[in-house]
Specification:
heterodimer, A: alpha+beta, four-stranded antiparallel sheet, B: 241 residues, alpha+beta, Ubiquitin-like (UB roll), Fumarate Reductase Iron-sulfur Protein, Chain B, domain 2, 2 domains, 9 helices
Chain lengths: 578, 241
């Protein structure tokens, strides 16, 4: 087995992973970095897929305090306020760096300054963007900057993480076992620090937005290694996912700016249904409310023929829509519709996980040493619901921080040895699927999980279906472990083997999501319980924590929110309903 | 055209194991809005699990799934089956690149050339803040449009000059060079211009527009290359600074 020794190992090449790599290098150019990415560098994951843009305070009439309040209000007040404040106060620095150092060029307003557009749930128009496909430029330019630093940054493409290597005490990460997907060979990376930036697991739902490769790998690895998680019940469904039948185009997001610009949502009867759910903000309400409203319309039999609702842009003028949203218009044209002039069928789509590994403001895991988490794999920044435009914001701001933290840790730490027996255990865990001559076909299992999660742990939840989901997931974890690879000698680019790992990681994350959702017996943000419809600020201004007991059983505990800036008393007084 | 099913021929090749490539045929039921990506996923998931191909975002933003579909480089995710106008579909890997297995190509030669033009921005040291540029100045109109490149390699696979000239940098890398050289904020424009102004650079382009014909983002690299040629000449005369 190949072995690489390095200072810093980074998993993931989205906004967080790439920015982390730049910051490790720029903090200390003598440090060695291994950047492993599941697809091609800068092409996999979801930062690249960012459409709308990034929230940042640039205008003197705006303020980080306002951005902070929007973020925690949007997040149902269970955000870690220190992390939310870090997001809003670092965002201007990140955008500055993206323009001045990385070389991005965001769209400009008439006066030549960076243009900021309207997004939902915000008190100020503060979303910077590159037309309606912002991620392409942000990620392409960050990737180019990583290419500039290849003397110290070793890029491993189509190389996925399998599991972390830890010390015998189990509280410190010393590297990871990776798989080179092109050859099927395993690689041991012995590192002083590991940064996890692989993104979430929203793809475990039938209708979902993320890239195909993003399957909760980092989260599942962190869970197996024993890291502490928080807020796993908080799954965001984006209200405007394109409906395109069984095609993989289904679930892809039609960007938030469409609603920001004045798009309407109509049900099958032609009613602007947001009137019933948030008459004040209508379509510009937060994602959680709009997604739930759409879902309820569909469930109440007021949906479209294909089980969706309509997004309507035509009243804004075809020319305006084509000019402002060329990427969205192109996408919709692919399915034979004209976004600028006719209603388009949409549905809520599983989009983003607010929950994840618990971190401090330096992106360090709260219970595993030398484990650094950035972006969607972490928790606390967004609370119970993420605002549109705060996602790429989190990736880049916390990616920068993670890089700085990792550089400092790498300087302070020695390279600790890994345990060969752990390498062997991990090898057995993942290579056994090649050893069997018969077993379970993984694809029907994968399809079942997607349906199970959509039906029972979806937009609207209740005790009975959550219980059913939990017990079925326990069974599926065992069933998936009995999978086999059809061609036992084909290690090179074996997509079936990779799908087995993906599916086991999905189940691992799905178990946490359903467990956590069953515990929160109230409704808040994106977590809606039909059996507990009210928000209960007296009891539930808390976060649910989860951890692996060591045998994959989940230990849970509850702690009060971290309310360092806007206290629980003030939140209760504000009496905001969800 | 409404189809019940399609006949798909897929290129199969494992350079480590096979003496030569072959085609496998599959009959695939057609679903609504079916893209070629749906077709190869169907085959791999449910018919022949050993098929290899690459994809990621599945909505035309990442440029991972470029393939040679019915005689033309295209993104599998943005090629609707119905748009091909025939029930007979042949899917091959993107030309001009080594094959890892089946439809998955090794993009390294493409990115090695991308790196040769120094694709990374180097800001002028006096620029401490984002530069104010009015949209109506027209200064960035063409650059901004060309920045939408998703490095899918379709142009590289289509270019007849790349096919016959191993050293040629190709349309995508040269287009990237143009977006930097035309960017007034960039500090090493002259250095970049020297890198592209060689025989394996801009002068290898013979204006056949193969690249523009296949670009899924509707970019016209030929136009960027013409702009570069002009600047190369000016630079030789000492006019470009």
């Amino acid at each position: 087995m190949n072995e690489i020794k390095t200072d810093v190992l980074i998993l993931g090449s989205g906004g967080a992973g790439l920015f982390a790599a730049l910051h490790v290098y720029d903090s200390n150019p003598s440090l060695n970095v291994v950047l492993a990415t599941k697809g091609l560098i800068g092409k996999c994951g979801c930062s690249r897929m960012v459409q709308g843009g990034m929230n940042v305070v640039l205008n003197p009439a705006d303020s980080v305090e306002k951005h902070f309040m929007d973020t925690i209000k949007g997040g149902g007040f269970v955000n870690d306020q220190d992390l939310a404040y870090t997001l809003v106060s670092d965002a201007p620095k990140a955008v500055h760096e993206l323009e001045v150092k990385v070389g991005c060029f965001f769209d400009r307003a008439e006066d030549g300054k960076i243009h900021q557009k309207a997004f939902a749930g915000q008190s100020f128009d503060r979303t910077v963007h590159v037309a309606d496909l912002s991620g392409i430029q942000i990620i392409a330019r960050l990737t180019d900057q990583v290419f500039r630093r290849e003397d110290r940054i070793k890029i491993l493409e189509e190389t996925r993480g399998l599991d972390f290597l830890t010390t015998a005490e189990g509280d410190r990460v010393v590297g990871a076992v990776l798989a080179d997907m092109r050859t099927g060979e395993l690689i041991v990376v012995n590192a002083k620090v590991v940064i996890v930036a692989t993104g979430g697991s929203s793809s475990m739902y039938k209708i979902s937005a993320p890239s195909v490769d993003k399957t909760g790998d980092g989260m599942a690895m962190c869970f197996r290694a024993g890291a502490e998680f928080m807020d796993m019940e908080m799954m965001q469904f984006h209200p405007t996912g394109l409906l395109a039948g069984q095609s993989r185009l289904s679930g892809s997001v039609l960007e938030e700016g469409l609603r920001g610009a004045g798009g309407y949502l109509l049900n099958g009867l032609g009613e602007r249904f947001m009137e019933r759910y948030d008459p004040e903000r209508m379509e510009r309400s937060t994602r959680d409310r709009v997604a739930r409203a759409g879902y309820m319309e569909i469930m109440a039999g007021r949906g479209t023929e294909s089980g969706g609702v309509y997004l309507v842009m035509g009243h804004l003028g075809a020319e305006f829509v084509e000019k402002k949203f060329p990427g969205m218009c192109d996408r919709v044209r692919d399915i034979g519709k004209q976004l600028s002039s006719e209603p388009v069928e949409i549905s809520p789509t599983s989009h983003f996980m607010m929950g994840g590994v618990k971190i401090d403001i330096h992106c360090q895991s709260t219970n595993m040493k030398n484990l650094v988490i950035a972006g969607e794999d972490s928790s606390g920044v967004h609370g119970a619901n993420r605002l549109g435009g705060n996602g790429i914001g989190e990736s880049v701001t916390f990616g920068r921080r993670a890089g700085d933290t990792a550089a400092a840790l790498a300087e302070q730490n020695i390279l600790r040895p890994y345990r060969q027996e752990q390498v062997e255990e991990i090898t057995r865990r993942w290579m056994k699927f090649y050893k069997r001559t018969e077993g379970v076909d993984i694809y029907p299992i994968r399809d079942e999980i997607k349906n199970l999660m959509w039906d029972k742990v979806g937009v609207v939840r209740e005790a009975k279906s959550l219980q059913e989901a939990m017990s079925r997931l326990e069974e599926l974890l065992e069933v998936a472990d009995q999978s086999f690879v059809t061609n036992r000698t084909l290690f090179r680019y074996n997509m079936e083997w990779n799908e087995i790992i993906n599916t086991i990681n999905w189940i691992t994350v799905a178990r946490m999501v359903s467990k956590s959702a069953s515990l929160r017996t109230e409704s808040r943000g994106s977590h809606y319980r039909s059996d507990f419809k009210e928000t209960d600020n007296n009891k539930w201004l808390v976060n649910i924590y989860l951890k692996n007991k060591g045998n994959m059983e989940i230990e849970t505990y509850i702690k009060p929110i971290n309310a360092t800036r806007f206290s629980a008393e003030e939140i209760i007084k504000a009496n905001i309903k969800y | 055209m409404s189809l019940q099913e399609i006949n798909v021929k897929i290129f199969r090749y494992d350079p480590e194991a096979d003496v030569e490539p072959r085609f496998d045929s599959f009959t695939v039921p057609v679903i609504k809005n079916m893209a070629i990506l749906d077709v190869v996923m169907y085959v791999q998931n449910y018919v022949d699990k050993t098929l290899a191909f690459r994809c990621s975002c599945r909505i035309g933003m990442c440029g991972s799934c470029a393939m040679y579909i019915n005689g033309r480089p295209r993104l599998a995710c943005r090629t609707q089956v119905s748009s091909l106008g025939t029930p007979d579909i042949t899917i091959m890997p993107l030309p001009n690149l080594p094959i890892i297995r089946d439809l998955a190509t090794d993009m390294e030669p493409f990115f090695e050339k991308w790196k040769k033009i120094k694709p990374f921005y180097v800001g002028k040291s006096e620029l401490k803040d984002p530069v104010a540029i009015r949209p109506d100045s027209g200064e960035r109109e063409f650059i901004d449009q060309m920045l939408d490149c998703i490095t899918c390699g379709c142009c590289y696979g289509a270019c007849s000059m790349v096919a016959t000239n191993e050293e040629y940098l190709g349309p995508a890398a040269l287009n990237r060079a143009y977006t930097l050289i035309a960017d007034k904020r960039d500090a090493i424009r002259v250095e970049r211009l020297k890198a592209v102004g060689r025989s394996y650079g801009v002068w290898r382009c013979h204006d056949q527009f193969n690249c523009a014909e296949v670009c899924p983002k509707k970019l016209v690299p030929t136009k960027s290359i013409q702009q570069l040629k002009k600047r190369c000449v000016l630079q030789k005369f000492g006019v470009f600074k």
